[in-house]
Design a protein that fits this description.
globular; mainly beta; 7-stranded mixed beta sheet; about 110 residues
Length: about 110
Amino acid sequence: VQVVESGGGSVQAGGSLRLSCAASGLAYAFSRYFLGWYRQAPGKSRELVAIFITSGGRTHSPESMKGRFTIAVDNDKNMMYLQMSSLKPEDTAVYLCNVGSWWGPGTQVTVSS
């Protein structure tokens, strides 16, 4: 199984970015796995950003990210997305995609003030 993120980059505060996550080699349909986005800033522990709850197609994010970060899944393409808006300097981190027990290498997001 291979999981790869893309779409990171540098953006000014208030800007937007869309991250993508592609998974290949899965044995089952994409949405049968746990699907989530996390982030890790230097010197900090890994932090949940958003998860996709297959049952009912619901999503969950921490309160601090609700309304700014939106997770979406394309089951046919084995793709997961994270739309980020109103970005803040404190959102600077490596963003990682989690599919089941697999993780991607991460994509850097840098937000400047």
